[in-house]
Amino acid sequence: MTAILDGYTPIVGDAVIDHLRQLAAPLKGLRVVHVNSTREGGGVAEILNWLVPFKQELGLEVSWEVITGDAGFYQCTKGFHNGLQGSSVTIPPMLLRAYEQTNADNAERLRPMLEEADFVFIHDPQPAPLLRLCPNRKGKWIWRCHIDLSRPYRVVWKYLREFVAGYDASIWSLADFVQPLPHPLYLIAPSIDPLSQKNRELYPGEVEAVFDRYGLDPELPLITQVSRFDRFKDPLGVIEAYRLVKKFTPVQLVLAGGGAADDPEGEEVLREVRHAAGDDPNIHILLLPADAHREINALQRASTICLQKSVKEGFGLTVTEALWKGKPVIGGDTGGIRLQVVNHHTGFLVSTPEGAALRIRYLLKHRDQLEIMGRKARSLVLDNFLVTRHLREYLTLMFATMHPGTDRIEL
Ligand code: UDP
């Protein structure tokens, strides 16, 4: 019996859970290591938090390792992140050396475990050089790219490609992001855990309590964006949209965010956001601790509309989280948001603050539409973006990677 998984049967049904058990049976006992660069903050940590215990419960021996570095390393990898998502960045050779040295230092610690593992999943560019640093590896190594690589700044991608080309396979969130590489490429969209603190149903009163806790007005419509303070998430565009809406109808805005341990630019962006918000009492900038999952859950549920006005977005788990709570999302017309915001059905895709403002006003005025879209939003997530689908695809990929060149796999 697998106790954690059993909890999901009321949501997805018995057949889905049985299927997962069958898929996992031939993989039992395999040693799997996931490596990323932060244990909290951001979507990757969010996913690993459920993925690791799920795989463990299905009988795999899974561990999650985090590489750590100094300020130079994080500055470099933030530069990669910006460059891979299209900004023209200059990364000085000194920072590249810090990147490679940090990986070499972490490899000293992790090598025995990584070389022995049957599967190693390396998340994003931060730990990508580890493959080269483990020359006696036994297992399959898979690079999981969580970011929007559709139009990378070429210099940055050329440098990183050298590290990822040698992997046995790579996983991407969207076909648009895929870059040519000499190994099998898999598409797996991320997902959310409907039973996590972030997404589970809350007790009566918990949602209403956020109005008091954060000084919000229960009578005013609430629009919310939950995001790290990152320029790609366009918090300034959100404030602009809010101001445009406010000219016509009273409304309040929450920008909720915290930092991620591997994101050194957050403070600077937060300063810009505070400056833009000025002394408007209806803009609430909430700096939440990394474990404020239940608070974010309540805030999303308390919101009339959720926003994710990103200009680049690998996937946007915040979008999935809001849709699951029956909130239409007004999202930037980019990357993974396009997979989730089905224009006019589960929300609206927008490219400008004016566009966002127009759609906010529409939904505030047409509450019946807001309800209908909210129902479609939840059902889109139920069908496509829950952990069970994600886990099924991971297990299938592992099976396929163990049987390369096989046309037909009997399970
Ligand atoms: N998040 C959080 N606290 C914050 C900001 C974000 O817990 O202050 C969570 C958010 O709920 C989501 C994840 O971090 O689960 C962000 O994932 P997403 O894919 O939206 O963006 P990323 O930060 O990975 O670019």
Task: Report a brief summary of the structure.
By secondary structure, the protein is α/β, with parallel strands linked by helices. It has 16 helices and 12 strands.
Describe the structure in your own words:
The chain folds into 2 domains: 206 residues, Glycogen Phosphorylase B (Rossmann fold, 3-Layer(aba) Sandwich); 179 residues, Rossmann fold (3-Layer(aba) Sandwich), CATH 3.40.50.2000. With 411 residues, it is an alpha/beta fold. The protein has a 6-stranded parallel β-sheet, with helices on both faces. It is 45% helix and 14% strand. The protein is built from 16 helices and 12 strands. The chain binds uridine-5'-diphosphate. The site of uridine-5'-diphosphate has 17 residues, from helix 4, strand 8 and helix 12.
| Uncertain spans | none
- Return the average pLDDT rounded to an integer: 95
Tell me the count of domains: 2
Look up the CATH topology of the largest domain. Answer: Rossmann fold
Q: At the fourth CATH level, what is the homologous superfamily of the largest domain? A: Glycogen Phosphorylase B
Q: Which key features would you list for this structure?
A:
single chain, 411 residues, alpha/beta, Rossmann fold, 2 domains, six-stranded parallel β-sheet, 16 helices, binds uridine-5'-diphosphate
Annotate the secondary structure layout:
Blueprint: H1 3-6, H2 9-12, H3 14-24, E1 31-36, H4 43-57, E2 61-66, H5 71-84, H6 93-116, E3 119-123, E4 140-144, H7 154-164, E5 169-172, E6 185-187, H8 206-213, E7 222-226, H9 235-246, E8 252-257, H10 266-277, E9 283-287, H11 293-302, E10 305-308, H12 317-324, E11 329-332, H13 337-340, E12 347-350, H14 353-365, H15 367-384, H16 387-402
Parallel strand pairs: 1-2, 1-3, 3-4, 4-5, 5-6, 7-8, 7-10, 8-9, 10-11, 11-12
Helix pairs in contact: 3-16, 5-6, 8-11, 9-14, 12-15
The chain binds uridine-5'-diphosphate.
Uridine-5'-diphosphate binds at residues 42-43, 46, 198, 226-228, 256-258, 288, 296, 315-318, 321.
